Amino acid sequence: MTRAPHGSAALRLTRRRGLLLAPVFLAACATGQGTRTAPQAGDTARVEAWLRAARLEDAPFTQTWPNGTTGGGVLTYHAGYLHLHYTAPHVMELVASGSHAVFTDSQTGSETRMGLAHNPLGVLMGNPLTLSGPVTVTDIQKTPGILQISLTRTENPSQGLVTLVFHDVAHELDLREIRILDERQRTLFIRLGAV
Question: Which residues in the chain land under pLDDT 50?
Answer without folding.
Answer: 1-36
